[in-house]
From TrEMBL:
<dbReference type="GO" id="GO:0006355">
    <property type="term" value="P:regulation of DNA-templated transcription"/>
</dbReference>
<dbReference type="GO" id="GO:0003677">
    <property type="term" value="F:DNA binding"/>
</dbReference>
<protein>
    <submittedName>
        <fullName>Helix-turn-helix transcriptional regulator</fullName>
    </submittedName>
</protein>
<dbReference type="InterPro" id="IPR016032">
    <property type="entry name" value="Sig_transdc_resp-reg_C-effctor"/>
</dbReference>
<dbReference type="InterPro" id="IPR036388">
    <property type="entry name" value="WH-like_DNA-bd_sf"/>
</dbReference>
Length: 105
């Protein structure tokens, strides 16, 4: 007697069932440009109308680190407490960018 069941293998379902919500191919150049200008992740997300966690996840997924290079090992990447822009501080205790320091000092 033959088995009445015939196994038909259907094509596997795709992992993603809906299209991506954001077109990162279009957004990536804008993100790179804003980060090279010294904008923080928060400021970049605000200017592009993105959720900050979405942008952080994208940067982490693609291993995109800080856009501002450091010259010496004692320099530290900071975000200004006043204007929220990214800058490289000469010491670990500096929390204001040079423009805000000049304005307040």
């Amino acid at each position: 007697m033959k088995n009445a069941h015939t196994h038909t293998h259907a094509a596997p379902a795709p992992h993603r069932t809906r299209p991506p919500r954001l077109d990162w191919g279009r957004l990536a150049p804008s993100v790179a440009q804003l980060r090279q200008q010294g904008c923080s992740t928060r400021e970049t997300a605000r200017r592009l109308g993105l959720n900050i966690k979405t942008l952080e996840a994208h940067l982490r997924r693609h291993r995109i680190r800080h856009a501002i290079p450091m010259d010496r090992p004692d320099q530290v990447r900071r975000t200004c407490l006043n204007c929220d822009s990214a800058f490289v501080a000469d010491g670990r205790f500096l929390r204001l960018c040079p423009e805000c320091r000049a304005m307040f000092g």
